[in-house]
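Q: Could you predict the 3D structure of Malic enzyme?
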Amino acid sequence: MSNFCSQVRLSSNLIRDVRIRISRSFTTIECHRPTILHKKGVDIIHDPWFNKGTAFSMTERDRLELRGLLPTNVQTVEQQIERFKTDLRRIEMNARDGETLSLAKWRILNRLHDRNETMYYKILVNQIKEYAPVVYTPTVGLVCQKYSGLFRRPRGMYFSAADRGEMMSMVYNWPADQVDMIVVTDGSRILGLGDLGVQGIGIAIGKLDLYVAAAGINPQRVLPIMIDVGTNNEKLLKDPLYLGLQEHRLEGDEYVSIIDEFMEAVFNRWPHVIVQFEDFQCKWASMLLNRYRNTYRMFNDDVQGTAGVAVAGLLGAVRAQDKMLIDFPKQNIVVAGAGSAGVGVLKAARRTMARMLGNNKDAYESARNQFWVVDVNGLITEERENIDDDVKPFAKKSNEMRRRGLNEGASLLEVVQEVKPDVLLGLSAVGGLFSKEILEAFKGSTSTRPTIFAMSNPTTNVECTPEEAFSVVGKHLIFASGSPLKDVDLGNGEIGYCNQGNNMYLFPGIGLGTLLSGARIISDGMLQAAAECLAEFMTEEEVLKGIIYPPISRIRDITKAIAAAVISEAIKERIAEGYREMTYRDLKRLSKEDIILHVENNMWKPDYPTLVYKNI
Ligand SMILES: NC(=O)c1ccc[n+]([C@@H]2O[C@H](COP(=O)([O-])OP(=O)(O)OC[C@H]3O[C@@H](n4cnc5c(N)ncnc54)[C@H](O)[C@@H]3O)[C@@H](O)[C@H]2O)c1
Ligand SMILES: O=C(O)C[C@H](O)C(=O)O
Ligand SMILES: [Mg+2]
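A: Sure. Here are the predicted structure tokens for Malic enzyme:
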């Protein structure tokens, strides 16, 4: 008995020990502990990581040789933000049109980003709903399209085909010894805007802005990367102002060897980094994912992040029909678009259904019947030539389809008319694809809450707007779009909710959870846990109203919960290895609440630190 008691005491001491470590986890300490600098005077003002502008206190101005280099009045960060907003309001009043305004807002934010990162992220965190559409979709799409003209200062790193054999040393040109998150693109499929070559770096920057704002990744430890292997965009190839390699894209083994070299180089310098692949064209997206996912700590946001967000939304739509989740495998889902994102969603939704049906071979077989896939060439059946391996399981049986009057290549309209699906999901990059005719046909859906996911980005590429959808399908519709769009006033005080079905709800939590778990790879289970956590965020009341995703203003809380779910799953799968002073053994002992606290403590907060100079 006494032995037992001392064991209990021992383990409770250990838990207390771990708890102390949680409460002392590094970011909390960093917030209060001064930041040591090795520079003084104007060098600090010109360094966006440390610059506070007019917020440097008088003692700091003395300590850091800043006295006289700034206007006399010391301002609070709130006053600084008020000045920023006054400037913004002036721009809003003078803007000619929506596009000019969006770009002007992006410019003013970008300039702040270049000058003072803490203040920039404070604004983003405090008003994420207002500014996410500027630094992220849809404006980021416009910025990428106009990047060569907008370029002022570089941000991130550029590796080009001309750097072959040099990458291992080039990575040391980046100033930070610690990098937690890399978002990399080759610019080959930027949103639904196609091949934008080197200009695609904007998307990596925008994603990392969300990593900082939503996941609290320290902005000094994020790195946007562009791998410039040329472009097949004829306009850019001829544009004298284009900033990238003006050659056609590298293909085949040559291309793969460049990405291999890049992966080796970044993991060699930063072994704990997480690499998010973003906006790679379909033919490379899944190939590279399969190539690296069991070796490196990486994931593909378009394939895996989108899949999780879609699954969470699909489950929400089932609940909105007042059905049990177990009814999900009965839903008939038409997917328009069989590219990297569409295939990711199909595979994840099938897996989720199969798990509900018993997780065996029969369950997988039966689940695939619930999907109808339509791409640029129409309905995909077994007769389709050169069908992609990932799409093959979803190809419809020709005999069965013929009995229903649907042939290989049947149009989306024909499919919707015949299937009367519960869900119509677009990842086609074709703006307006869900035409009035198709929406009319979708009115025939057998669901009590027919659901449309018009997920293509940016706004110009959305398959249909919420106004179009609600006006045709009616008030019972559930609607989500990839880019933010306004709710619809349905009259009589009723609202047609426009949810934002965007992978931004998942990737920050996947990244943060993976980082803190220390897992060497990102497993399907970790991704599934993230998706389920997002789905659980919605209350019964919300889903019944047609609200299937939480508001973006809650993104920091959502990300915290998702990161905790990812960590718990990594612990369960025994692939967590711990991070910094929190070892795997420590992690294993944490309760659910402790894990959330641990995540919270490790989220960087945009507060000015006290700066102290130290000679090196
Ligand atoms: N909301 C999100 O979180 C999210 C995430 C990832 C991708 N996306 C968006 O999804 C879109 C597609 O991305 P992707 O990576 O899959 O692109 P992709 O180029 O790999 O795939 C596009 C697919 O659409 C199909 N398609 C083209 N025209 C069509 C038509 N008329 N009818 C039916 N299908 C058609 C193509 O055949 C292809 O299968 C992009 O606009 C992207 O921005 C959104
Ligand atoms: O970038 C986004 O807004 C979502 C997604 O990653 C996309 O490629 O469209
Ligand atoms: Mg993307």
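Q: Anything worth pointing out?
A: The pocket of nicotinamide-adenine-dinucleotide (ligand 1) is lined by residues 189, 191-192, 282, 302, 306, 309, 336-342, 374-376, 412, 427-430, 433, 455-457, 461, 482, 501-503 (CB under 6 Å).
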